[in-house]
Amino acid sequence: MPRRIARSRRAVAGLVLLAALFAVAFAGPLLSRWGWDDTDFTAFRQGPSARHWLGTTQSGRDVLALTLRGTRRSLVIGLSVAVLSTGLAGLVGTVAGFAGGRLDRILMWGTDLLLVVPSFLLVAVLAPLLGGGALVPLLAAVLWMVGARSVRAMTVSLREREYVLAARFLGAGPARVIVRHVLPQLASLLVVDASVNVSVAVVAESGLSYLGFGVRPPDVSLGTLVAAGQGAAPACPWPFAAAAAMLVLIVLAVNLLGDGLRDVLDPEAGPRRGDR
Fold first, then answer.
1. What is the mean pLDDT of residues 234-249?
2. What average pLDDT does the segment 226-233 reach?
3. Which of 74, 96, 171, 203 stands 20 to 30 A from 196 (CA)?
4. Is the pLDDT of residue 102 over 90?
5. Which domains does the chain have, with CATH numbers?
């Protein structure tokens, strides 16, 4: 498996970029003389310099320290949402597809019902009421439905395969059959779903924070930094540009890694020209 991953240029590029972003976001503040909540009263709205590498905001806060803090928050939120939403999608979709019958109809009816709910509006309404700690479960709760339908459709096809039927005839229980024979075939689908959910969660959190429904002050995320820096961008572009650039890099890294892992894990996918 590691050798197959190493041969995928997309997977390697995405993994290296994502690892670099994590290293910068989590280790960078340890090397900086400025904390994200520090204020330099001698440098208001100054450009990049040896003292402040990415300049300062209108309130004298270091843009680099703020951007690293926002990147850290957005990465943690995005990955947490992806794990929860993809796990829920895999659980619901696999159970519905393998069980069939009434349970399948009930689960899919509930999934379809949630799909018609305006997700962004629902999170925007509930997040202020439930507090900042509810942002991750709220985003996960509105991102699993499409993945669950895809997992269910693939599970319905897999349950009729010869090796699955043979395992069931030999007395293997449903849980064992799912873990040993169904989930490995769903790996590529779940990886792609997780990578998409990371990107969607990071962008959604940024959008919610931009509108004031996400991460609350005094804490920051990339969305709050973009919102705070937009108004002054013509005269003081560095806070806005730094946060926007990190947001683009996160989405790019996750999508590259997801595409590469999909090709590696999908047993029916041949090597792509760009991965050779």
1. 88
2. 80
3. 96
4. yes
5. 1-265 (1.10.3720.10)
56 — alpha (psi -120 to 50), left (phi > 0) or beta?
Answer: beta
Residue 62 phi/psi, 5-degree rounding, is -70, 125
Pick from 236, 207, 239, 216: nearest CA to 66: 239
Q: Mean pLDDT for the chain? A: 85
Q: Is the dihedral of CA 187, 184, 112, 142 positive or negative?
A: negative
What is residue 1's predicted lDDT score, i.e. its pLDDT? 53
Cα 13–chain centre separation: 17
Task: Please provide residue 253's backbone torsions phi and psi, each rounded to the nearest 5 degrees.
Answer: -60, -45
pLDDT of 270 strictly over 70:
no
Q: Can you give the three-state secondary structure of 93-162, one letter per residue?
A: HHHHHHHCHHHHHHHHHHHHHHHCCCHHHHHHHHHHHHCHHHHHHHHHHCCCHHHHHHHHHHHHHHCCCH
192-206 average pLDDT score: 86
258 has pLDDT over 90: no
Q: Give the chain as a DSSP string.
A: -HHHHHH-HHHHHHHHHHHHHHHHHHHHHHH-SS-TT---TT-SS--S-SSSTT-B-TTS-BHHHHHHHHHHHHHHHHHHHHHHHHHHHHHHHHHHHHH-HHHHHHHHHHHHHHHTS-HHHHHHHHHHHH-GGGHHHHHHHTTSHHHHHHHHHHHHHHTTSHHHHHHHHTT--HHHHIIIIIHHHHHHHHHHHHHHHHHHHHHHHHHHHHHTSSSPTTS--HHHHHHHHHTTTTT--HHHHHHHHHHHHHHHHHHHHHHHHHHHH-TTPPPPGGG-
